[in-house]
Amino acid sequence: MSSRTEYAPQPAKRTDETEAALKDLKDSEFSDALSANGTTYRVGVKVLAPAESDGVNTNTQVESKTQSSDPSIALMAHGADNWIAVDWPVEGIRVSAPQDFCNQTNVRFYILVYDSHQWIYSYELRVATNKPGTYMFKDVEGDIYILSVTGVTYVLGENAVNVFNYNSKKPEIKAACYRPF
Fold first, then answer.
1. For a Cys-Cys bond, which of 9, 12, 30, 72 suits 154, CB 3.0-4.6 Å?
2. How far apart are CA 160 and CA 72, in angstroms?
């Protein structure tokens, strides 16, 4: 039996303070990060329009096979992590995670978007999560992108998601991993 208490954050009620935080949330809240292959990408938090986050989508094309890490992933993650094989194409639609995948990774839904009009990064992965922690995603090229999800996402409400903007010749996400802080 674990002595750790599991905590599932609840969406915050809208107040003047959270409304002010939403207004202050601009591109300056994003920061650069370096992928496992040495490519720069951008991470941050985004508040989606209600239509983007509330939509029901029955597209749950997420495999849920656990696979052990390859050596480069283990080195990057500082330990053995359980990666879940997924097949997330670039479709620009909200995809709800199947319950077994959500139980293993705490990812509720994702949206993988291509935007040809962006100057720097063409792809954006938006991820809604249930718990703070480190979320890792691997694309077809084998590059790994890391999101450190803190409590700020949950304070901003149900429409807040963590995002990373990136470039890749093969941007589809093929594996996901969750590690608690």
1. 9
2. 31
Looking from the CA of 42 toward its CB, the CA atoms found within 13 Å total: 16
Distance between CA atoms of residues 124 and 41, nearest Å: 10
Separation in Å, CA 29 to CA 4, 37, 63, 152, 162: 31, 24, 33, 11, 11
The pLDDT tens digits of the residues spanning 158-180 come to 888 999 999 999 999 999 999 99
Per-residue pLDDT of 57-102, as tens digits, reads 333 333 333 233 333 433 344 446 889 999 999 999 999 999 999 9
**Hey, where are the domains in the chain?**
16-179
- 85 to each of 14, 18, 29, how far by Cα in Å? 36, 36, 30
Q: For 43, what's the count of Cα atoms within 13 Å in the CB-facing half-sphere?
A: 19
Tokens of 142: 């084998």
Question: Do residues 28 and 42 touch, judged by C-beta distance below 8 A?
Answer: no
CA separation for the pair 42, 173 (Å, rounded): 16
